[in-house]
């Protein structure tokens, strides 16, 4: 059996066209009739032909490679976002190279070195998943001239987007916290809640203080008292320990007409355990709300009311912005994600995705 690699000439002969026509089909040229395109695609399938990516890159001067820089990938948010970026890139015949970094050891020189390595590989643009202030600063102030999309929380974004950078080559994608926070607090107030005990995540995370500030604003707007407990981390034991200490007094008095709202689902789970051990019923005595809509929260007893941050949509919109920055067309695109964002007031480069409230039995409304 011959082991000769199938060539573009073989495909052309099988389809009964010139090799130039095969090349146009491979490169998605519009200058090919649909019937001819289908015939060439069938020949490619029959012969199991795989075009040479290096040859295509030499001809088009496009590598179709996208870089992703991310930290804190042990958490669900960054992981789901990266997964969405990779899926959408693959659907557009783009290739993703991911670099994960340890923020505690990262400095501007190291960050620039990562981006310069991407440039040497032929990466055309970079998406940076930046959960902390330090990571955002590195992403914005990098001197490497490559188009970039930065995924981060929106708090303070007006000041951030006013920094001296080219907004035609730098875009931001964020999750809008204000509308869903208003929705949550309005529902709590309607069910008789007078006070919200908010359990915050680690304050070096932009998402943690953005969610906290949105909760405080919504409570103040709806005339609810709010108390913030800093858990210092995203882990359930932190909220369990903090709330257990608070409940050492008369638990029913401490939690009267109070709802607990946690910055993520793990913190909500820890709070729920502390409440149950104190003899308080969820949601009869205390309503509990989480954030992230983690798998399994629908199977808790009771199922946890939470917020779905739409991480997949964040990732897909980030990739849409990459396509726009690079001038790639999105023909025959049936994904409507481009419609599901708003621009931050006063900004032409900050795109906000709306999260979704998921009502379950841990709340009464």
TrEMBL record:
Which keywords has UniProt assigned to this entry?
Answer: DNA-binding, Transcription, Transcription regulation
InterPro entries xref list = HTH_LacI (IPR000843), LacI/GalR-like_sensor (IPR046335), Lambda_DNA-bd_dom_sf (IPR010982), Peripla_BP_I (IPR028082)
Q: Name one GO molecular function term.
A: DNA-binding transcription factor activity
Q: Which PROSITE patterns match?
A: HTH_LACI_1, HTH_LACI_2
Keyword Transcription regulation listed: yes
Task: Output the Gene3D superfamilies linked to this UniProt entry.
Answer: 3.40.50.2300, lambda repressor-like DNA-binding domains (1.10.260.40)
Q: Which residues form a coiled coil?
A: none
Q: Taking every annotated instance into account, which residue ranges of this chain make up the domain HTH lacI-type?
A: 6-60
Q: Which Pfam families match?
A: LacI (PF00356), Peripla_BP_3 (PF13377)
Write the protein's name: Transcriptional regulator, LacI family
